[in-house]
Task: structure prediction
Amino acid sequence: MNLEGKNIIITGGSSGIGEATAISCAMNGARVGIISRTKQRLERVVNNIKDKGGEAEYHVADLVNEEELVSGVESFIEQWGSVQGLVNNAMSISPSPISDQTIDSWKKNFAVTLDAAFLGTKTVLPSMRKNKEGSIVNVSSVVGLRGTSYLAAYGAAKSGLINFTQTSCIEGAPYVRVNCVAPGAVLTPATKEALPTKELIESTINNIPLKRIAEPEEIASVINFLLSSQSSYLTGICIVADGGKTSDLNAGLSME
Result:
């Protein structure tokens, strides 16, 4: 996917899907600006991209902090003069039964996952409209499509992100496209922490029709596609990249 000449901002780009997306975008010719809260991780990703011959910069910001996030996005726009792409990838996950979930942990899921996407989108839209060019990609989750025990807050925020995508695409048209990708299980640091044993990993794999967990680079390739001109007539859609998981109604039946 050719992203030559495009300036792309990625939130939560210091690990997992965000890191893979930053590297992929840069290797496809984009200049990448990464926003996250951990300077050491940001430096590692940016240096890795530069070592590979790509262009990348970072801005340290706590995405729960409105002022820091907006300042980070604006700093890239001012420095570059324009922005053609935004990937709202940052997320927070606080597994808990509903009866035990605190209102603070509930709100944090929304602050990082949904509020940050709203603020990032709101900040880049004027520049994109002015230049009559822009593609925004929101990273949701299959948990936003189906009920999942212990992930009420995370799922509700990710579900909201899908609806926000649809509304944003209407308001951004005709010059700004807004799309969404909903990954299933992906081998990110967060997933590895949630599945610490071989048994849990095998159980997860066995419940995916493709019988494997996705690599972050596979989701990054979908995001790259949505950022590129190859998806020029797509807006308001959500691509489910889950190895067939949400297509499988497991009713305990087997033809084997």
